[in-house]
Amino acid sequence: MAAPESGDGNNGAARMVTLISSDNTRFEVEAAAASLSQTLQLTILDGGGGGGDGIPLPNVDSATLSKVLEYCIKHAPAAANGGAPNATAVDRAELERFDNEFVNIDQSVLYSLIMAAHNLEIEGLQSLVAKKVADMIKGKSPMEIRRTLGFPDPTPEEQAEMNAHMLEYGWAYE
Amino acid sequence: MGERMALVTGVVSRVKHVQLSSVLLIGHDEDSVVHDFGPEWCTYGQILTLTTNFVFAPWCLCTRERSSSFASARVIILQQLAQSERWWLPGRVDARLLFDRMPVKRRSVKGKGSLPPAASGDRLGTLPDDVLHHVLSFLPAQDAVRTCVLAHRWVHLWKSATSLQIVRRDVDGPRSVKAVREFVDHLLLLRGSSPLDTCKLSLSDFEEDDMSRMKLWIRHILMCKVRVLSLDICDHKLLDFSFCPALEVLEIDDSDLSCADNISSESLRCLSISRNCYFDEYSRTHIYAPNLHSLRLEIGNHRTPFLARMPSLMEAFITLCDSNRDYCESTYSGDCEDDSCFACYDIPSDTENCVLLQGLSEARNLALMADVEIFIFRRDLKSCPTFGSLKYLLLNEYWCVPADFSALAYMLEHSPILEKLTLQLFSEGPKFNVEMRGIFDPTERSAAISEYLKIVEVKCEVVDDRVLDVLKFLSKLGISGN
Questions:
Q1: A136 touching chain B per CB within 8 A
Q2: Which of B82, B184, B198, B451 makes an SS bond possible with B93, Cβ 3.0 to 4.6 Å?
Q3: How do residues B300-345 score in pLDDT, each as one tens digit?
Q4: Does residue B200 fall inside a structural domain?
């Protein structure tokens, strides 16, 4: 169905597409990896992103995009197999190990990743980063969470509001 | 007007968050409606293949109900159109439109990408609601609710999250219904009927007088149109899910199903019942889920449930363990001719006298594992089910010992399009010391066996006499090792 004139053929070598970050860095990746993004999948299915054109991603900077693509490249083969059924336990363990290390990152990078995963709609990555944030929240007191997540210290008004809510939500703290 | 065939193929999952009743394509003169796509066009996840022989301008694609959220759907569609030569477009659509909805863009027009660390203050607070809901979905309900005090934005966020985990918060946390009763009451009451996608309810310590409360909770959860429900507590007679048409996935673990006469749902696609569940000692539970695609049933205790027909079944994994109550002292394979025998009889009279196999007979992939003492499968075979759609079959030693291959032969002869058979003998796996592969010798192939059968695998720990007997049987059918 792809437009025939796009000319980057899908025979033989894997089809490549070019993604352009907000700071104009060009990334060439296999279409299969980029297609983990539901957002890009539409364009790629229609033959876009090949040759000299490239798909501009004006909201993803090159550092974030390279991280995102690292994830996509690693996960593309498993996704092509339709996920778990064909994967061996070893493959799955390897992906899990990769995922754990992948999100072991600075918070500002993590937030950029969250936004990129959200906008590009990469389901696995969305879950991975959301789970990482959840792990940072789990089992902590509100003040600990605020500190962990880098909220500024509450103003007296905010503190009063927090206290009022703590009172109202007493049932959640027993 | 220059008419041209227009064709778009794409997955319309992109518009899943958009609330709109219809889309109109409007012609050049801005007045005439060229094509009115009904609500079905906007369904989440639907593959869109539409053809229309009208030319239209992209800016005329609009909705009847203009809403801000529609803007994002519109630009995605325009992007799609702009990419395709097959669409006539009067002007170039800037691909940047695609990202119009990104909140970060508005915040960092000049900043090119990530914000400087100094501004990272409450970066979490800048994320869209659905991202934060996603984060909350990975938290036990207690932790999720407690985020309400974090900042103003978070006060009501937890109420609209579509995923709920009512579970023990940590290993030492309370697990009894009594201990969390006040919490769950508040939780459910305050979030009201806000829709749920996924819910896990896992509290194992409960007493008789907790039952009515749990029943209320589960009913409330079902009223929130939950799609995926995972339970490890269950109440008496609670398993009629027919009033919850959204329910697609149900997982039951660690539950007492002993008073459940029926587990019934027309919408259910996946059902899983673990071996820690208890069925009734005397009467048989009926499982009625005609639209099931996937079934995982481990029957540990008491009576094997009766399965009604499941025409869309893709895969089923059935395990019957030795504590199963379905045995008859008088016979090896049922049919003791004593009408009062619970095991041999007690099947709905309007069915084909089969407990499990008739219900499974339309499956594509089937795994049937049982301890040798259990006779339910042997009993079911007497009513001669045929497995017309079966392509892959996994069996254990139940079907071929002690040197009785009639059950195995029956399965092979009544699976006309079987492609692969795996025998897992005297070992539960998942790793096996010995894995053998057999192929057919075309000259010796038994005519009674599926002509599509290409692979026979035998997996075991050690090749002993019992396994050798099986190999001999296979070679009689014309299957030999390669």
A1: no
A2: B82
A3: 777 888 899 999 999 999 998 866 667 676 776 666 667 667 666 6
A4: no
Q: Do the Cβ atoms of A142 and B139 come within 8 Å?
A: no
Is residue B266, in this structure, part of any structural domain at all? Answer: no
**Whether B121 and A138 lie within 8 Å, measured CB to CB:** no
Tell whether B435 is covered by a domain.
yes
Domain ranges of chain A: 4-138
**Backbone phi, then psi, for A121, in 5-degree steps?**
50, 65
- Full residue range of the structural domain in which residue B10 is found: 6-103
Split into its structural domains, chain B has a count of 2
What is the fold of A4-138? Potassium Channel Kv1.1; Chain A (3.30.710)
Interface contact flag, A151 B150, Cβ < 8 Å: yes
Q: Which of B113, B137, B170 sits opposite A22 (nearest CB)?
A: B113
Query: What is the number of CB-based contacts under 8 A between chain A and chain B?
Result: 165
Distance from the first to the final alpha carbon of chain A: 59
Q: Judge contact between B288 and B305, C-beta under 8 A.
A: no
End-of-domain residue from the set B57, B82, B103: B103
So what's the ipTM on this one? 0.88
CB spacing of B85 vs A58 below 8 angstroms: no
Chain A interface mutation, best of B5, B146, B148, highest count of A Cβ atoms under 10 Å: B146
Any chain B CB within 8 A of the CB of A8? no
Contacts of A1 (CB under 8 A, 6+ apart): A45, A46, B7, B9
What pTM was computed for the model? 0.68
